[in-house]
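Entry for the shared binder. Reason: the reviewer on the internal report wants the predicted structure included alongside the sequence.
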Amino acid sequence: MKAGLQFVVDRIAESDCPVLILGEHGAGKRSMARQIHAQSNRSRCEFQEIRCTDANAPTLRQALSANGTVYLPEITELSLSLQELLVNQYFHSVQGRACRLLCSSSRELQDEVKSWRMREDFYYLVSAVSLRIPPLRCRKSEILSISDELLTQFSKQFDRPKPVLCKEIIEHLMEHTWPGNLPELRRHRRSGDLSGRHQSGNIGKIEWKSQASIIKGGYARLLHPDRAPVDHRSSDIDWRQPKTRGSRIGNQLQGPAE
């Protein structure tokens, strides 16, 4: 995280004000929300994440009565009735606020107000303190450090030696535009760790889009080391399609991202 943004996060974490976190999908909004919670005086309390599409009045009221942090990702998906509930029972509460509210969005809230999908009073209340996370393509200086953290994580997860990035891989990491932001970088670092495409002389062709060779050479052997090698010519497994059995395994390993 850039020094300036980190400074702002440190200052915000010390207060108890609601915060709106803006940024593209996968820019790291959830991670920032967790960081704010971890650095706050509520760090020992619960961090509750409530999906706005699944939220209802009883769940939201119960969460607001707790002493922890409530995180509402993609706040623009919250219904108008629940927006009104937050206005009356959180922002304008006469009894004080029990929890801290953190929200995030990948959309521009002004557009939602103009389209009548967001209450104007709710917009001004929820966006009083806001942070905007730059996309990964604008944070080139962080790519190698994030990549190193991911390699450490995946090496421990899969019980494999941590690989050393060769010059060619580093050049690709720095030159790529990362339209998928952090989830894309996480996916490619995990794939590289499983396939061994890090050491010089073992780089092979870096396929930034296709995961087929990784699934065949990495996940299958990792998850089923005692089985015979998979015959990739088999008609019941199409490694080229995104919804094959191997791809579903990859999605399960990846986890949620925002």
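Summary line for the report: The CA atoms of residues 111 and 200 lie 49 Å apart.
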